[in-house]
Amino acid sequence: MKRHSKQRELIMKSLKKLDHPTAAEIHDDIKLEYPKISLGTVYRNLSELADSKIILRLPSSDGADRFDWNTDEHFHAHCTVCGKVFDLFGLLPREAVDSLDKAVEEHTGLSVSSREISFKGICKDCAKNKNFQ
Amino acid sequence: MKRHSKQRELIMKSLKKLDHPTAAEIHDDIKLEYPKISLGTVYRNLSELADSKIILRLPSSDGADRFDWNTDEHFHAHCTVCGKVFDLFGLLPREAVDSLDKAVEEHTGLSVSSREISFKGICKDCAKNKNFQ
DNA sequence: AGTGATAATAGGAACTATTACTATTTATAG
DNA sequence: CTATAAATAGTAATAGTTCCTATTATCACT
User: Fold this and answer.
1) For chain A, which has fewer Cβ within 10 Å, the N-terminal or C-terminal residue?
2) Which of B94, B93, B95, B115 is nearest to B104 (CA)?
3) Would you give the distance in Å from CA B58 to the centre of its chain?
4) Closest nucleotide to B8's CA, by C1' atom?
């Protein structure tokens, strides 16, 4: 990531527009105005941006990973039916997270570099539309 | 899961023996004494057992999912280098988890059915052996 | 502006974890 | 013992992601 590229610029723009999109969703969106962008380019840029902590990767156990342009400390809730992601700011104060990290390091000897704190359930819309079972 | 099977019995035995194994690790282990077991059978049984809450699925963002025979409420720390999983009992008391769920439901309208609270870092052994970078 | 070094891309092949399919085997109720 | 249908083995198929390579684009230095 030493050089600028039109593609990376479009990826950042799309990421901010789309609300926790997947790589494929970003790719589809960009193709509308720049049809020759490659899916591999989207994946590579998202991974590099996440590695550089410029964006956040939201790992998903079932479907595809999603991405978040907002790197302020916050957690997420995932709808298991439609995949939508909800932001949770200020749920766990910073001091609480720090003390959890410390407890983990004492119990396991593992030096914590990141946490994965997310909630799963069925969102209001999916519950209303009975999009499940 | 209405009928007993030799294969499911071996899967449970291997799961308890192996310390948070993946489906492939269980398959490899069982093949030693029962070579004709199919990997599909291992996956199907693990999924059914997890759906029935008899065992726990530990989703992994990078590699393969791991499984835990102990369904008591506890969280996990994952070494990002070797994949080893450490148990964390009593880190977050039940009441804390319940109140987090409640806060999430109030903020998002999503009805929480499960949480994913795990920590990532480099374990003592990998740090010592410099198995990284 | 021109040029050389090399970073980044497009497009497709390859890979990994997992699920689906189907003919065969096996468990178990009666 | 036998009929029914659950479970399996083996393989094909799928989804998400990474890898590979020839080509294109960026940018530091003229």
Assistant:
1) C
2) B115
3) 3
4) D7
**What is the DSSP track for chain B?**
--S--HHHHHHHHHHHHHSS-BHHHHHHHHHTT-TT--HHHHHHHHHHHHHTTSSEEE--SSS--EEES--SS-EEEEETTT--EEEETTSS-HHHHHHHHHHHHHHH--EEEEEEEEEEEE-HHHHHHT---
Which CATH architecture is the domain A1-70 placed in?
A: Orthogonal Bundle (1.10)
CATH 3.30.1490.190 fits B72-133, yes or no: yes
Domain spans, chain B: 1-70, 72-133
pLDDT tens track for A66-90: 999 999 999 999 999 899 999 999 9
Q: How far apart are CA A23 and CA A97, in angstroms?
A: 29
How far apart (Å, rounded) are the C-alpha atoms in residues B78 and B87? 9
Q: Chain A to chain B, count of Cβ pairs less than 8 Å apart?
A: 117
Q: Do B127 and A120 touch (CB under 8 A)?
A: no
